[in-house]
Structures are given as C-alpha cells and as structure tokens.
Amino acid sequence: MGDSWHDVLEPEFKKPYFVQLKKFLLGECTAHKVFPKIDDIYSWSRLCPLDQVKVVILGQDPYHDDNQAHGLSFSVLPPCRPPPSLKNIYKQLATDIPGFKIPQTGDLSPIAKQGVLWLNTSLTVQAHKAGSHAKKGWETFTAQVIRAVLKREIEGTSGVVLMAWGLPAQKTFKAIGINESKHLLLQSAHPSPLSANRGFLGNGHFKKANEWLAKKYGKEAEIDWAVISAK
C-alpha cells in the first residue's frame, strides 16, 4: 500500500472486521486462485496518492477471469482486450473528450496517475466466481478509503468529483454521506452492456468532471482523459 494511504488507514488493520477479512483471504488464497495477484490488490494506492485524488470512480469487484484484474476498477493490462463495460466507458469518453480515439488496450494506469482513483468496493475475488468476496469486510474498508478522501483538508484540494455508476455505487455513496456543496456527485446507470443504454451512455460525466475541476481549481486541474487515446 502506498505510504499516503497506509498512514491514514492503519487504524483499520487492527479492527476485528479486518482481522477476519485477512483470515478469510488467507484461506481463499490457499484453496483457490484469487484475483488480482497479491502485489496488485492495493495498486490503486500507489498509482494515485491520497493527496492527489481529484476523481473517485467506484466499481464493484475485480474482473474474475485470468490475466484481467490488476487493482484498478474497470482496467485491464495488455494483452487483454477491453471488457464490455470498459468499451462503453471509452464510448462515453469519445463523446465527451475532443480528439479521444478509442484504444485497443485497457490499462487505465496513466489516468490514475493524474488523480483518478479507480476503486472497487471489494478488492479481491475468487477466480471465475463473481461477487465471491462480497460482504467479507472489503466494503467496510473501501468505505473508509472514500471517507479518507472526503476528510482531506489540504489547502485548495479538498473537493473531489465522485462518479457513481449503478445502484451499488450509489448506495455506497449515500451511506457514507456526500456533502454536495463541497463535492460533485455524478450518478448514472452502470456501463455494463445490460444497463449502459439506460443512462450511462450520454451521461456526460467526463466532460462535467473537467468543467467542475477547471471552475474550482483552474484549467490545469482538468484530467487528461485522452492520455490513453489510440495514437
């Protein structure tokens, strides 16, 4: 875990729920294949330090097929092709961001390095078994991750954009409680093919995020979403 996050989240590691979670994960890793690999579970924390977070995008659990999950929600490393939800994210980026050309790869790390926290609600999953690590303690921990962002009091950088795609993400943010006079909460359907046409495509979230960041912090605070654009 990156130092900036470890310093703030350290009290969680000793709480009963997290101790139980570690025991559960030890058993899972002994008996099954678990994604992402151990070194990548907290990769989001190293790519996007706490004091640099500008945007939080909340997914559910990691991809559960081989060679996909690497610790960022919706992201996959080469040679994996972008999964269906990420393809729809790319479609919306192409609509919102001038000059964005849809890439053939799915690594969102260059965007994470600009202050976009691609966070999943559960940080692990058993191979080929979606939702298998839900309600084991990760939800409590990742809610604390989000609270850590909301509680920052760094001069000029306290307000952030929160993107809630789908009902689970919306319920998470509602339970945490978002001060919408300080933060921008953007909500829509999930980018999954099952729901993308019911409100995700056309939501304008990437454009709205940059407009809000520019208004609040200046043009230089905008996210260069096109950094992953096809050359």
TrEMBL record:
GO cellular component terms, semicolon-separated: mitochondrion; nucleus
Pfam family, one: UDG
GO process annotations (BP): base-excision repair, AP site formation via deaminated base removal
Record keywords, A-Z: DNA damage, DNA repair, Hydrolase, Mitochondrion, Nucleus
Enzyme Commission (EC) number: 3.2.2.27
Domain (Uracil-DNA glycosylase-like) ranges: 46-213
Keyword DNA repair: yes
Descriptive protein name: Uracil-DNA glycosylase
Organism the protein comes from: Crepidotus variabilis
